[in-house]
């Protein structure tokens, strides 16, 4: 047992069945992917392999996420709450998290804000929404989606589009056309965010770098 494992087990409070609820979250888009459970053994295996292992309550056995589907989850970080009775695991998912083929198990809406205008102080909420949508497209690969097409063609195609859209932005600016520039800049931002997802670089890290330079 490593020092990290010993520390985690000592601080955590498993329930009467020896289980701990685990919230799994996409490290890039910050989307909650699933809620699962770990016992001590699956926790040790998760820490050892840097991939998620859970305890299946229905099958009563250890469960390596993606063992049969290939949709594994590489662990980026793991945190426990103030009571030590729950975990949040940040991962880089390789494919959908849900057995239905959906990107996230939490895909059924109960309540959502339907206001068209962004709330004050949330001017860039659309970037978070776009990051989540791109992550969903990467995981689910729906047929007919342009974003699916980009991911399937690979990094060279994505890079080509980033270059093309950057050139279009330059042309629009030289033309002094606000409408054209707005349109082409939107295209550039979209393709750049697809590239960030392909490279597994969260937008948060870019924002942090900008903050550092301020």
What report would you give on this structure?
It is built from 7 helices and 6 strands, in the order αββαββββααααα. 44% of the residues lie in helices and 17% in strands. The relative contact order is 0.11. The mean pLDDT is 92. Strand 1 (20-26) and strand 2 form a beta hairpin. The chain has helices at 3-11, 40-49, 125-140, 146-153, 155-174, 178-198, 203-213, and strands at residues 20-26, 32-38, 53-56, 61-64, 73-80, 87-93. Helix 3 (125-140) crosses helix 6 and helix 5 runs antiparallel to helix 6 (178-198). It is elongated, with a radius of gyration of 20 Å. It has a 4-stranded mixed β-sheet with strand order 2-1-6-5, covered by helices on one side. It has a two-stranded antiparallel ribbon with strand order 3-4. It is an alpha+beta fold and 214 residues long.
What labels describe this entry?
214 residues; alpha+beta; single chain; two-stranded antiparallel sheet
Please count the helical segments.
Answer: 7
Largest sheet composition: 4 strands, mixed
- Write the H/E string, N to C: HEEHEEEEHHHHH
Shape: elongated
How confident is the prediction overall: mean pLDDT? 92
Rg estimate, integer Å: 20 Å
The count of DSSP E runs of length 2 or more, i.e. the number of strands, is: 6
Strand order of the largest sheet: 2-1-6-5
Q: Poorly predicted ranges (pLDDT <50, ≥5 residues)?
A: none
Secondary-structure-based class equals alpha+beta
The separation of the N and C termini measures 43 Å
Strand content: 15-25%
Helical proportion, percent range: 40-55%
